[in-house]
Amino acid sequence: MTMLDAKSIDLHYGAAQALRGVSLQAEVGEVTCVLGRNGVGKTSLLDALAGQQPVSGGSIQWEGADITKLKPYERARRGIAYVPQGRMIFSTMTVKENIETGLVVSGGSEVPGDIYELFPVLLEMKDRRGGNLSGGQQQQLAIARALATRPKVLLLDEPTEGIQPSIIKDMARTLKRIRDERGLSIVVSEQVLSFALDIADRVLVIENGEIVRDDPRDGVDAAQISKYLSV
Q1: Are 171 and 98 in contact (CB under 8 A)?
Q2: Which SS3 state, helix, strand or coil, does residue 192 take?
Q3: What is the pTM of this model?
Q4: pLDDT, tens digit, for every residue of 41-84?
Q5: Is the dihedral of CA 204, 33, 152, 77 positive or negative?
Q6: Left, alpha or beta for 102 (phi > 0: left; psi -120 to 50: alpha)?
Q7: Hey, is 210 helix, strand or coil?
Q8: d(Cα 211, Cα 144) in Å, to the nearest integer?
Q9: Helix (H), strand (E) at residue 58
Q10: Which of 53, 87, 107, 145 has the most CB atoms around it within 10 Å of its CB?
């Protein structure tokens, strides 16, 4: 079942075109990885899906309904959660308070125990300020806050950026667990091919604002894709 269906998306920043006819389908219980170098349109695509940037062409469907014109908060209420590049946690708020901001969308009053089960370190540090966490811990916090909204689709923009390899492996395991246990659709933009191949059910490659490859995980040619990621 397709949760989120972007069809022929165009996106402009003034006269500059960032996306050209991009299509993407987020299926229930699948991880879709969008790979590409810096500046090729990965963040623009996730911003478009989350409603952070208006599209100039194409449409975005949510469970068959057109949400192309909906605001970000309206999409969040539908079930789209977005963890942007740089994580954007509240540095002066505690870990617990950060996660609680996600409860505004879901209507909860207490942080669900299953979130701390996914990220045990956050339970240990629940009274620590977010700004005092390591980069990897802040990324876990950002994902936990997104999960507190009880989303159906989780969008992650460059989640491995600035994170040490051991934490990246833990994150891959956690994302697969989230997919399997919660049946979420997860869309991840990435530059780290090994991480993408570890978690992905489908791999897309974006180049100059266009999708140039779209392969199921079993059909991925890693050598070919790596050429699109080299500087």
Answers
A1: no
A2: coil
A3: 0.94
A4: 999 999 999 999 999 999 999 998 999 999 999 999 999 999 99
A5: negative
A6: alpha
A7: strand
A8: 30
A9: strand 57-62
A10: 145
